[in-house]
User: What shape does this take?
Amino acid sequence: MRRILFIGYIGLLLLFTISCEQEVPGPIENDGVAPAQVSNVTVENLNGAARISFDVPSDPDLLYVRAVYTTKKGEIRETKVSKSNSSVMVVGFGDTDAYTVSLYAVDKGGNASGSVNVTVNPKDPPMELVRKTLTAVPDFGGINVSYENVNAADVAIVVLTNNELGEFLPVVTHNTKLKKSVFAVRNLKAEDARFGIYVRDRWGNLSDTLYFNMTPYYEERLDRKKMKPYVLPTDAGLGYGGSLAKLFDDDKGDGSFYHSDDAAKMPQWFTFDMGITAKVTRLTYFMRLNAYFALHSPREMEIWGSNDPSPDGSFNNWILLATHTQIKPSGLPVGQLSLADTDAALAGESIPISHDLPKVRYIRFKTLKNWTSGTYVNFNELEVWGDPR
Ligand SMILES: [Ca+2]
Ligand SMILES: [Ca+2]
Assistant: This one.
């Protein structure tokens, strides 16, 4: 302190001003007096949560109210709300047991009131509600799992089955906030298999597991080496380095794609020969990596099949196999992707084809609309699945 006396008064003032500006701004006022407790506490029990309402104390330096509870695993969970709130949500309960929540009023100096303890009895957690709605049906090469999620909770639905080593492990994790949907587990053999499905919430709470046995219908990925372009007069032209063969080269990267040309308009189509006749069960296409649910990726399409395509390029001798609209799981605006969106893009977009349709050899992929309602069609890879036997 003595050294400060040697610094000129003006200099000292200046220094003091500078140091004040550089320091982290924060409340300096600390009256050392804890606020009074919250009062008139009431509880509304919700699914996996509770809303606790209260009156805040009248202390002028009150800053926030903190709610704290301890999970069964001993984790301490805390929610803070500013003093202008009259309620606080406590969330993440994995069961319907009673929990004690402690409420503290805290002032600008960090002084906390004594706790007010309140008992909450959360209703069934959202992941248990989803679990109760799970149903599965066999599909080609896998199963389809349906669910409802009335709270639009952020959950993961995990499907387990035996792998080739006989280990019962997760094969699909479906992340969702949708209120209702269906998803597929693919690439399974047409053999009786044991399945398990459980639901996990974002706090790591797990539902019990639904176990069942099911036999998927037979399906195989049709031989890609046999797939050849079959260009007809009305087909869209190629542009921007794209080619039809690049849809069948097993390269899903952005360097190996189909792209139509400037002259093409909607609707537009391209045609290919599978090299064999097969009962087609689905087409699965893979979007450009840097344009998921965006740009020239097909959004609405029709799939046509034929055994004798008309050489004039017309749709004579073709039958409609499927009409399909791609749904972006999150519904977020173009350019924004949720985890569910990315998962769906990586899995590929499958266009299911009804099993009562005849075998075909030629396929026509007709795009009605892309993700910008523009005139190009561009994506990286196309798989055809079915039964050639
Ligand atoms: Ca105070
Ligand atoms: Ca490719």
Remarks:
- The mean pLDDT is 92.
